[in-house]
Amino acid sequence: MRKSMDGLAVLVKESFSLDPFSNALFVFCNRNRDKRKILYWENNGFWLNYRRLERGKFQWLDHMTDQTMHVTKRPLRWLLEEPAL
After folding, report:
1. Which of 2, 9, 54 is nearest to 30 (CA)?
2. How far is CA 9 from the centre of its chain?
3. Beta-bridge mates of residue 47
4. How far apart are CA 57 and CA 7, in angstroms?
5. How far apart are the first and last CA of the chain?
6. Could you tell me if residue 77 is left (phi over 0), alpha (psi between -120 and 50 degrees) or otherwise beta?
7. pTM, whole model, 2 decimals?
8. What is the pLDDT along the chain (85 residues), one digit of tens a residue?
9. What radius of gyration do the chain's Cα atoms show?
10. 3-class DSSP state of 46
11. Contact between 8 and 1 (Cβ < 8 Å)
12. Are residues 10 and 4 in contact, defined by beta-carbon separation less than 8 angstroms?
């Protein structure tokens, strides 16, 4: 979770062969599932949302390691909702 906006954009492009400037949200979560970053390109700049939990963990599918996954609004809301403590 040390990467900034530019580092995450490079990761999206080079590791996943995706366009970081597309109309998509790129969601990253650390191994402990207590930190999450969301990268989004809007008009002429990146938007980065970072969240660190003091307690609890984000819901994250176990098979979602370093693979890309296309999700619709419902699973995205599930990934972003408040964690249970």
Report:
1. 2
2. 11
3. 40
4. 24
5. 22
6. alpha
7. 0.79
8. 899 999 999 999 999 999 999 999 998 989 888 998 999 999 999 999 999 999 888 877 665 556 677 778 887 777 777 665 5
9. 13
10. strand
11. no
12. no
